[in-house]
Amino acid sequence: MPVPATTQSKVAAARGAIRSLYALSRYVRVFGLGHTRTGEQLESAYTRVRALIPAEGVAVILAADRLTVGDTPVDPGPAEQSFARFLRETRQTAFVFNERFTLEALEDVVSAMAFDHPGMRTPVGSSVPTPLGEDAREWLSDPARLLYFINVATHEGAAGEGVRIPHDAIPRIAEQATEDIAQILHVLGKLGTSTSEGAALGAARELQRVPDPLLLLLREILQEFSELQPAPSRDALLLQAADQMVIRFILTKLENGEIVAAQVPGLLDRLGRQLNTLRTLMPGYEEKMARGGIALESHLEKLERELWDTAPDVARRTVLLFETPYYVPASCIANYVERLIVHGEELVAATILRNYGAAIDGRDAEGRRRSAVGVSELAELYALVVPDYVGKLVKAVSRQLMRESDIRMQSLLSAALIRLSYAVQQQRDFAATAAASDALEEIVHRRPILGMELRSRISVENRLPEYLDEAVSSKNVSNDLLGLLQRHATPVAQQLCSRFLNCSLRDESARLTNLAGQMGDETREELLRRLRTGSSDDALGAVGLLSSLAPDETAAVLPKRASEWTRPQQDILIRQLAIASSSKRGAVLLKLLPDLDALIIPGAIDEIGMSGDVEAASSLIEIAHAGDSPRFTAYSKVKAIEALGRLHAAKAVDGLNELLHARKMMHWTEPHELRIAALQALHMIDPEQAARFVPQSGITVAELSLGPLAVDPENPWARQRRYQRVFPMKPMTAVATSLAGKAGLDIVTLSLGGGKARRQGKMQPGSDVTLQLQLALRKLNSQILVREVAGNEITFEIADIGLSDRSRLRHLLLAQTPATPPQPPRAVA
């Protein structure tokens, strides 16, 4: 069953509001609520959300872990999932966006969404608990015991005595060669494989050849381990001590300026070989972790992250701002950048991110690799902190991707481009999204195979419905969003046409038409192409928009196209012109009349009367006074007269009086039903003159009470109701005959223009049907067009009826007592 237009509008408004809240929560998570930048975003988001909320409000309901608006589910995405978590954690089953949604409420919701799942971080140096087997090697059971053992072997101190590195020994550590570290790692390996106290003591004595500063560093590490609760033991003790030795050795060299950040990976690689040898000597530790289901990372990558996490802020800032920041792992940068922002150093954070992305197309191959990996991991931070830089970064990534020959680098760069594109789309950064779209098109042009692989992951076209929801729901469309939509004129035109075909509200049709006009010449030309040479479905989708955007071109092209279409297609055409509500649709409809099917003409004339185009009065007068005509039935003439009344066409008064007063001997010349329509039209144009004529007209006041409704400019529906509906005291039975056969109908509401019934057979929307209603010994016959079929209910519109049958229908309706009070304005059926 199609979703009603009002519900579609509410779903779009709810989706836009939730995604605005989600994007704002990313800012709050990075900057905090008290930050100046967050305050600006709060004001902007509040204005945007208020603009999306319709007057009657929108209720978002959490049902079975899914968000719904009414009975319509909202497609789940990151934003919707975050909002659902917020509702669950606050134990709410619904949240209403309405005029009571204040800035304070916005802050509360965004704060809850920003910190819905605070990530638990494992402390640096924490160990994985593993079951221990029987092992009597006391020197590995306790770091303090091992420290005592080393002190005894090197004749330094007593058990449990803490040893600290003298301040003047720090510079001397940097002077030690890598081989000295290797010597310590070798001794630690021997300690781990020694099976007796004597063998271990012999191994420890080899530390006597190690320079004092490094030996002091080892003692410092073991002393720190002994203070941990719980302290590492067995193989983990030696392995973590070895890792810390390497990390602190490299950090000291880095702080003293003996190496630069670019040399850290090489140094880690050389020492990593020694660490790997140490680990292979104690395979039990690795086996225990594997049995525990823990996947081991690359040990060097883990070591590198730990090194930069441990590095002092001064050293880290120097590297990130002035050297080669891409040699610092992205995870370390993310934490550091977030801390900078919290402390108000946004400019420093932005500079670091720009420096990091600068190597993406540099000469350093390793720098390009690391930068590609880092940009992918930091994509959300780029979108939040330096949105103005993201477009430039996207172009740099795409350019490097197009000239990169290494398959692995292509994969890394592709991932970076995809993540950046996703991040800016999530943040609704339409300028950066447009840059990503342009980059994709260039890749498709220069490297078609690669471009086609990326299109499904990056393509903006996949998210055009979301962007159109936002554009249609917003009172003012941003230039960035409009520019992005203009880059995709063809698919946007398709989306606009599809939405217009399903449109039923006047405000919605106006918004779609305004957006189509703002899209510019390319979209206008695409719509005209659809009308001129497209399929019938394409042309019918475009005609409503074009009747407002290009009425002259539409009037010139449409008659020829309409003459080729079937009756149901012409019916859709008239309805689309009615929904568009163009001020010039009356002239377009008049040009169409000669090419329309006879059953469609009455509806077209009706729409001319609703158009407000007084210039159409002359043509309508001619139709009303036309003699017997194969084109204009008696019902069409009645419709033309009613249209003159709705237009308040003063020039029609003489013609209406002629129809009312014309006599033949002892009776009136014109049929009674036509004279009723003429007197009702005269009443709309000149009430006083009409009132004077009523007593001598031969028309009763009751008959006049049931007539065409005037145009209501405040009616929210694009197609207004033409006549007052009557609710029979009990359903009236009728028989509908169509190509599908006969079907029984129980008519529950009826008017001079159509009604609603429960069907007892097959019937398709758009089909024309002969309706027979039994009245005493006579049958009331009419031709109807089926409008909507929902379950076993249909709505229908009368397309043709003889004037004597229409008169009987009028008296049938007058004989019924309304079962319900007048209903609020609704769409015509």
Short description, anyone?
This protein is an alpha+beta fold and 829 residues long.
Question: Helix- and strand-based class?
Answer: alpha+beta
Q: Could you give the order of strands across the largest sheet? A: 7-8-9-12-11-10
Mean pLDDT metric:
80
- Percent of residues in beta strands: 5-15%
Tell me the total number of β-strands: 12
End-to-end Cα distance, whole Å, is: 18 Å
Reported for the largest beta sheet, the result is:
6 strands, antiparallel, barrel
The rounded Rg comes to: 40 Å
Unreliable sequence segments: 117-134, 156-176, 286-297, 819-829
- Tally the helices: 39
Tell me, what's the shape? elongated
Into which percent range does the helicity of residues fall? 55-70%
General description of the model:
The chain has 829 residues and is an alpha+beta fold. The protein is 60% helix and 9% strand. The strands form 3 sheets. The chain has a 6-stranded antiparallel barrel. A hairpin with a 2-residue loop joins β10 and β11 (778-790). The longest helix has 27 residues, at 5-31. It starts with a helix and ends in a 15-residue tail after the last helix.
